[in-house]
Amino acid sequence: MCGIFGYIGNQTNASAFVFEGLKTLEYRGYDSWGIAAKLKTKNLKRKTQFTIEKHIGKIGNGVLSSKFSVLSSLAIGHTRWATHGGVTIENAHPHLDCNQHIAVVHNGIIENFQELKESLARKGHTFTSETDSEVIAHLIEDNLKDTGFATATRNAFNMLSGMNAIVVAYSPSKEIVAAKTGSPLVVGIGKDEYFIASDASGIAPHTKKVVFLADNQMAILGKSFKLIQLPDGQEIKPEITKLTWEFENAVKGDFPHFLLKEIYEQPKVIDNIALTYKEPTQQLAKLIKNAYGTFMVGCGTASYAALAGTYLFSSIAKKHVNFSIGSEFAYLEDYLTNKTLLIPISQSGETVDVIEPVTNARKKGVTIAALVNVIGSTLYRLADHKIVLGAGQEKSV
Fold this sequence. Notes:
- By secondary structure, this protein is an alpha+beta fold.
- Helix content is 27%, strand content 27%.
- The chain has nine helices and 20 strands.
- The chain has helices at 14-24, 113-122, 134-143, 149-158, 258-276, 278-290, 301-317, 352-363, 378-382; strands at 3-9, 32-39, 51-56, 72-80, 95-96, 102-108, 164-170, 175-181, 186-189, 193-197, 209-212, 217-221, 225-229, 234-236, 241-242, 294-298, 322-325, 341-346, 367-372, 385-388.
- Strand 7 and strand 8 form a beta hairpin.
- The longest helix is centred in the last third of the chain and has 19 residues, at 258-276.
- It is globular and about 75 Å long.
């Protein structure tokens, strides 16, 4: 679980935007952080190259170096939770290509990275890290020999196996391209400027207009915003969502940590659901009553909430409701019919181990009634019925 933040637009302090944005996402990655920016410099060589800085440790304890005081309108950054390779400066993101024109940040695991890395090394590409992520920069660089940046990125992303989200900045054309399968990405739309992040909390202070990327979608950010479908590259119309929660919800306030803050917020959230979502709640109760088999699915904290829910249905409603952890639901899929009700629970609406069983269940005609906290998220879009928790942004882990 790592944090991604990027900025491109008419402002000249992109590095600071990214640095502060990453701080709001530190809960998504703890071991290292880094920023790459295209600085407005008089140095002819550096004009088309990225300036990069990486550190070990939490970004909350970090300071952006003085070299980033130079004006910049394009920057991307990352807070890492290590998968491939140890916790070193070399393995921290962003990663660059051989010419330092391409900067990449990445969430996920590239299952075929070793094969791709060996092929690129034979072509003369030099690798400086142990990560699978660095492959992306060199793969795009290799594709740039035959086509433009956006198409080169699309072709490279189509070659990756596994669940991945990438954000790639290109210095010569002053563009950011982002694509995803699995891990969440959100585009924020401002006035002549765009933000991209793995979580809307970093974007919320700057704009409430966002687009949640669906799987196999790619965003091209520059002077305009284009959304295309993968793998073929057909342009599609973005679905703009307006964030409803306030930025104040994402800060600790007087509480020593987010866990305690969110525990104290729970009664207010439940009151709000009871008062605001009376009709959807009654509709969900009717669906459960009429379903031939009801399953609740969640991961992590959501799985404990689902398990507790089965006890409450048993003791109060005298109703049998099944429970499964998302990653284990595949073993129960043979029970599913078009009369089954599936209740997935996910705060973010992007939990991969919840999205996958929901997608499989839909193929069997199962009715999906989601409990979700993020309007416009993948789970929100997949569900036939949804109850939005209205809990604000959750940050305790």
